[in-house]
Fold O-methyltransferase family 3.
Amino acid sequence: MNKAIFEVLEKLEKQSSLEKSRQVNVSSDERMLAITKETGELLNMLIRLKNAKNMLEVGMSVGYSTIWCAEAIIENNGKIITIEQNAKKIQRAKENFQNANVSEHIAIQEGLAMQILQELSLNEDYKVFFDFVLIDADKENVIEYFDMILPMVSVGGVIVTDNMLYPEKYRESMKEYSSHIQAIQNVRTITSPIGNGEEITIKLR
């Protein structure tokens, strides 16, 4: 990992730790709500194993997960399309991407995830296009997100969904999500205890 990416990730990890321990006061709409470092390492490894080039991220926040993914994607000269609604977080993410020297590999789509995914799904260019997807947005609509995204995923493509186990307040919703995926014939899925719990789903055909 090059120095610029390492330093930005380290800085964001410290910020996330301070926020979670309440050592800094941050308004609810500005909290990072980031994946764990272990999840970042998992995503990075999966992208490398898959040799992914085209990635979709739903829920960018300040870009911590995006940078972990970009570190692997850039070796394939790939691109990440990432979705985020919060303008303040988008500005912070842009600064983080610039400091990590990964900006040219990331395209930010600002707005509601549901609306942007609907637009992408209607674009023939994105049919079976994405090799790798990270879903880390609001849990109320996670099943709808998955259903819209699946036709845009290439055969053999991977979808990772965060917060399957923690925080506990999401657990029932995420159980429903996992059950929904398990009923789909052309995917294989498993829940991993890494980080906050990751659903790892592969599209078979």
